[in-house]
Fold:
Amino acid sequence: MGRLAPIVMSITTFAGSAQFAAASIVDEDGAIAAAIAAAVFLNMRYAPIAISVAPLFRGPLWRRVLEAQLVVDESWAISNRGGGRFDLGLLLGAGLVLYPVWVLGTVVGVLAGDLLGDPERLGLDAAFPALFLALLIPLLRTRTSIAAALGGAAAALALVPIAPPGIPIVAAAGVCLIGLRPS
Amino acid sequence: MTGVWILVAVVGATTILLKGLGPVALGGRPLPPRLLGVVNLFAPALLAALVVTQVFASQQKLALDARVVGLLAAVAALVLRAPILVVIVVAAAATALARAIA
Structure:
């Protein structure tokens, strides 16, 4: 991807997995359209995720749009208080810490990536699932949330072999329709 | 090279749009009650989906590899009520160790 493009992308697209997916397709000389599609599919989960925290964002339009950009998997998961409640301070705080780390990390990776070697050798790809698991366990207090977790995991695993990456996660959000309350 | 910049622009704009739509349409107001039951379940469902896809999926294939060792180590650490940071380090270290041995 060259040197400048990954850095600009980290600044404008604050969403790691989509960037990794797009970069790996470009690096393997894949079509640009395929890289765009993969990244957009991966980021589709931010539509439901952002809806879940929407009530937190107040004030003028520009401020709501700007604050919503700090929503990433990690800041969203950390700010979750259970029962559908989220903490705005934690969400923005975590986002504001992660964003510069993400951009600076990209700069370091572009300039010195070859020196650092393969991050998988350090087991770093197992770090985020461990974080997400640690944040998931305390949520499993009600029968419906356990059903949603099992259903989400099952739907995602079932779709991995047949759908492009990203779609399995969006499908997990679809499972939550079991929580639809009769009006 | 132009293609890469098109990619950066399109993905950037789409991501900002996807993240911004909900807060722009619903911002500052409580969610409609009917929707609340669904949104309450997003956290457990999406977190579970992120865990299983990041551990068992390699692109479009299901795989059992060193990441599973990391997940099991994370479960053990959680059972022992370790703090989150310890859980993360233990998972990464166990995966790295499994890769080094394999």
User: Anything to note?
Assistant: The longest helix of chain B spans residues 2-26.
